[in-house]
Amino acid sequence: MASEDVKTSESAVSTIVNLAEEAKLAREGVKAPSYAVLSICKSLVAGGVAGGVSRTAVAPLERLKILLQVQNPHSIKYNGTIQGLKYIWRTEGFRGLFKGNGTNCARIVPNSAVKFFSYEQASKGILCLYQQQTGNEEAQLTPLLRLGAGACAGIIAMSATYPMDMVRGRLTVQTERSPYQYRGMIHALSTVLREEGPRALYKGWLPSVIGVIPYVGLNFAVYESLKDWLIKRKPFGLVEDSELSVTTRLACGAAAGTVGQTVAYPLDVIRRRMQMVGWKDAASVVTGDGRNKGPLEYTGMIDAFRKTVRHEGFGALYKGLVPNSVKVVPSIAIAFVTYEVVKDILGVEIRISD
Prior knowledge:
- This protein has helices at 2-28, 33-57, 59-70, 81-96, 101-134, 143-173, 185-196, 205-233, 246-275, 301-312, 321-346; strands spanning 284-286, 292-295.
- It is an all-alpha fold.
- The protein has a single domain (33-346), classed as Alpha/alpha barrel (Mitochondrial carrier fold).
- Strands 1-2 form a two-stranded antiparallel sheet.
C-alpha cells in the first residue's frame, strides 16, 4: 500500500509539474498545438462577446446614423440625434431602436475574428520584412507599418463579412413601405441573392474597402502608438511599471476610433447609399424646378460622390456623423471593458492588439 501511495504521489507530482511546465510555456509564448487552438477560441469568444455587448449598447445610435445617411433630403424625418431617437420611439416603439441589431451582432464575431487574426499575421509579416530590410533584428513596427497592417486586416475582414453588413443596412432602414420585407438575416441574404443576384450582395463594396484602409488602419496605428508613447515617455505620471490603466486604454481607444471614423466617414455614407439604391425614402434626385424626381441611381462610387455633393452639398457626406461620434466613446469603452472581463474569466492571455 505504501508503495502504491508513493507511486500515486509521484504521479500527482508529475502531473502538477507537467501542468506547470505547460503554463510556463504558454506564458513564454511556446504553446502546444491544442493549447494554441484553445487560446485562439477563447480569444474569439471574448472578442465576440465584447463586440456584441458594445454594439447592442449603442444600437439606437447606430440605427439613427444609418437612417440619417440615407434619408430623402426632401422628406426630412430625422433632424438630429435627440429628435431622431424620439421619432423612432414614437413611430416604432422600443423595438424600433434596436432594429437590425441582431444582424449587426451576428457579423461582429466573424468580422472581429478575421480582422484581429489578419492583423496579427500582417504585422508579423511586415515586421519580418522590415527587420530584414534594415538589418536590425530588434526593430519594431513604426506607426506607418502599423497603419499598413491594420489596413490589410480591415480589407480582409470587410470583404469576408460584407454581405452581412449589406443586409444589416437594409434591415435597419426597412419599413412597411420597403420594396422587400425581410424576416431576418438569412431571409434577407437569400432574397437578395434570388431577386437581385450575387453582385447585389457586394453593392458599395469598393468605397467600403477604401474606407477601412484609413479607419481600421488608423485605429490600430493610433491606439498602439499612443500606448507605446505613454509607456515609454510616461507623461503626466499616467503610467507606472509600464502598465496602462483601464481608463488610459479606453482613452487611447476612443482617440483612435474618433480619428479613424472621422477620416473614413464620407466613404461610409456613400457605401450606405449605394446599398439602398432603389429603396423608397432613400436619398433622391431633384429636378431644376426643385421637384423630387425619384430615387437616385448610381453607376459607381465616383458617380455616387458626385451626385450626393451636387444635389445635397458637401455636408451630406457627413450626415449622421454626430450620433456616430457620440457612440464611438461608449462603444469602445464597453468593448474594451467587456473584453477584459471575459478574457479574465476564460483565462485568455492574448491582448487585443498585441
